[in-house]
Amino acid sequence: MSALAQASASDAYSIAERLEAGLKGAPRGLIIDGKSVQSVTGKTFATHNPATGKEICQVAEGGVEDVDLAVRAARRALENPAWRDMSAVDRSLLLNRLADLIERDAQELAVLECIDNGKPATLTKAVEIEGSIKTFRYFAGWPTKFGGETLPVSPRSGAKILNYTVREPVGVCGLIVPWNYPMSMAAWKVAPALAAGCTVVLKPAEQTPLTALRLAELALEAGIPAGVFNVITGFGEAGAALVDHPGVDKVAFTGSTEVGKAIVRGSTGNLKKVSLELGGKSPQIVLPDADLDAAAASIAAGIFFNQGQTCTAGSRLYAHSDIHDDLLARIADHAAKLTIGNGLDPAVNFGPLVSEEQWDRVSSYVEIGQREGAELVCGGSRPQGLNEGFFFQPTIMANAASNMRIVREEIFGPVLSALSWSDPEDLVAQANDSDFGLSAGIWTNNLKQAHRMAAAVKAGTVWVNCFNLVDNATPFGGFKQSGWGREHGRQAMELYSEVKSVWVNLS
């Protein structure tokens, strides 16, 4: 841990105490048209600290009527000259100003994310907060560079025609984000949407609503006009209403494949644009010539980081039979060295699962795996001495087989399923034998083999001798049932824009 991270985490408990005291009292409101308001029904729900299971505060429970109010506010803002006619330079300045404010409040935001999501505060600061700052700064550069082009056309002989294309905002965007990376996933969608000139209604997961609300407040402080960035907190009813609403032009969703399919069905009313970043069951493929120390450390991080609650988690290990046992022992050693506990403690690098529901899900899969014949190498239950909260040990299951549910289904927890292989052709078939295709890891010192394997694996991202690296400049998304479209880079800007072709007769 860096000295800066240690300094930031040293007073995390006192920051958390102050934040929680400030959150008591009136429920946290929805953000609609630049104001914090309670839901039309007056309903609220509790958000809990996963490390203790205790309530943090009450939050407004948005419903169908609230979604309608937010969408209408976003539509007015879209047509308001203050936003519609804003210059590209000024839009860039606003996004950079928002990044400045996130940076100013980085320590408090990191602690807020920690108590609402559970991941250690040192990691929320490095991943969620610093990642969000980078995302807004990156997309702040796009408004001045994202445009159309002139095209050489030949519609008929002798005609003098000028043809050019322009990029226009797709419109009002419904953004639905998950609980595993609450703030950074919001930034991944909000930043390109605003950079493209859209207006948004953000629906955070009900488990983790607090940083989304704070982000919208900072956007207003940055000078982003009222109605451009709205937030509806609540449950599935609110998300469904956002998908169904005829005033929404595009839906961007990160979450489960099951919900993604429901969103596609719900979007047909006005044929709104849809982009989806969905589930994964990522293979980690280890060839016999790999650097086992480097592979073991990265594979452990790839499945145990964020308690395995990551769409790209490397949850399927395919290790060559010659090195399988040795590699598994090294990964288990890394698991044993993790410090489990409340993420406010700077020594902790493995926090709780997000909720009791998620704890039950992960535990049930471990039981299913054992019934199907997998061997429990380590973990599989609650850590000793941590009786409060939703803590679950890092878990490795050996002797897994391709037909087992722990190999085929997304567990979304710290559970690694290990399989052995010896035939390279059969290995590729096994790795691709999945409904998902989000990412994959390949470990080898053979350059030719690495490229051949990367070409053969069906995944949107392939990491060779590394894992879980992402950057705003490079596209991110999946094959097969892992989603539609790509986030980051120019591809993200294209998701939030429409192309208009203009023909001018110069004859």
From TrEMBL:
Domain Aldehyde dehydrogenase intervals: 41-502
Enzyme class: oxidoreductase
UniProt-listed PROSITE patterns: ALDEHYDE_DEHYDR_CYS, ALDEHYDE_DEHYDR_GLU
A Pfam family of this chain: Aldedh
GO MF terms held by the record: phenylacetaldehyde dehydrogenase (NAD+) activity
Keywords: Oxidoreductase
EC number: 1.2.1.39
Active site: 277
Similarity annotation: Belongs to the aldehyde dehydrogenase family.
The protein's name in its UniProt record: Phenylacetaldehyde dehydrogenase
Annotated organism of origin: Novosphingobium taihuense
